[in-house]
Design brief:
Rossmann fold; alpha/beta; 2 domains; six-stranded mixed sheet
Length: 259
């Protein structure tokens, strides 16, 4: 059996609180295979973003095992690209320069930075806006730049925390289609946090529903829809049935709070 791209075993996280430690994540066990697209869903407060932040190396944890390709995760790394809901672009740099900035931090030469940034700006279909500043870009365009930047240093894994949550419905669908196209072409492992169950079903190979009190894995769903995905699938009986099952699991997980 091949080594999982991501392996989480018995992971627990506590936060300090006025009445004692707050148990944020309890006994999380999760494996992601190479090139797998997995979404985390659940009610607010179930620990989805906390878990993704721990995988990104931006937060620590108190107990358990966290491995990528069999090696411990001890902090942020170039093997993991991260995209948040906020675009986190540098306003004084153009779209292409924002991508180049990340590559320079990775130690690449000026020529390499320029060529790789240009290729990734083209990948997210922003060639015409390569020299535009963030203030001149729409929300969807800014998120395209953020995705280009995260992919530019060729991470093995892409971690995305509600990346399309601030976008209007039409732009969100466009970004979902773009992400599936990029994922199908480049085949990397994706861990995706979303509150949108339709989005999770549309994008994922597997959906993990989390419960609250403390945050824990409540249910798992394998998405059997064929690829490549398209928006017509959303109206299919199989899509609607799975969406209902995931929603039911989220509702059950939000009520099943351990006191």
């Amino acid at each position: 059996m091949s080594v999982p791209k991501l392996e989480i075993a018995g992971l627990n996280k506590w936060y300090p609180g006025k009445r004692g430690p707050m148990h944020a994540l309890a006994d999380i066990d999760l494996k992601l295979a190479d090139n797998e697209f997995v979404s985390l869903v659940g009610a607010s407060g179930c620990g989805k973003s906390t878990l993704l932040s721990i995988v990104a190396g931006l937060q620590g944890f108190d107990k358990g095992v966290l491995l990528t390709d069999g090696a411990p995760i001890v902090g942020p790394g170039l093997d993991r690209g991260v995209v948040f809901q906020s675009y986190t672009l540098l306003p004084w740099l153009t779209a292409q320069e924002n991508v180049e900035f990340a590559l320079k931090a990775a130690g690449m030469s000026a020529g390499e930075c320029r060529d790789i940034a240009r290729a990734h700006i083209e990948l997210v279909k922003l060639t015409r806006f390569a020299d535009a500043y963030p203030s001149q870009l729409s929300g969807g365009m800014k998120q395209r730049v953020a995705i280009a930047r995260a992919l530019s240093y060729r991470p093995k894994m892409l971690l995305m925390d509600e990346p399309f949550g601030a976008l209007d419905a039409l732009t969100r669908h466009e970004m979902q289609e773009l992400l599936t196209q990029i994922w199908e072409e480049h085949r990397l492992t994706v861990l995706f946090v979303t509150h949108d169950v339709e989005e999770a079903v549309y994008l994922s190979d597997r959906i993990i529903a989390m419960a609250i009190g403390p945050g824990r894995i409540h249910a798992e769903f394998h998405v059997g829809l064929s690829r490549p995905r398209n928006q017509d699938m959303i109206a299919s009986s199989a899509f609607i049935a799975l969406q209902k099952d995931v929603l039911a699991a989220i509702r059950a997980g939000s009520k099943d709070e351990k006191l």
